[in-house]
């Protein structure tokens, strides 16, 4: 699969969008934004919150996995894995409600914003 390289301005914009998504999930789940942004391995709960953020950036905002990876400081395959895990976990009704709430809040936060 060939991905076109974003212009420096568009890439910066994607980075800012991902930073906002990280801030949203940090606030929603009462997790330190610093912890979410760390590059070293995190606890399972912090990792799960980050995965929900990646999922929202990809599914709700339509960013491709490479863009989400760059914005979250992770590899595209990490984003792919995160989205797969979140989709599988949505079979649990309570978890699905949590993800749905996150999707709605993320969509509302970016409602009037042109991402490209």
UniProtKB/TrEMBL annotation:
Indicate the segments forming the Chromosomal replication initiator DnaA C-terminal domain, all copies: 17-86
> Which CDD domains would you find in this protein's record?
Bac_DnaA_C
Gene Ontology MF term list: ATP binding; sequence-specific DNA binding
Q: Which Pfam families match?
A: Bac_DnaA_C
One GO BP: regulation of DNA replication
- Note the Gene3D superfamilies from the entry: 1.10.1750.10
- Protein name in the entry: Chromosomal replication initiator DnaA-like protein
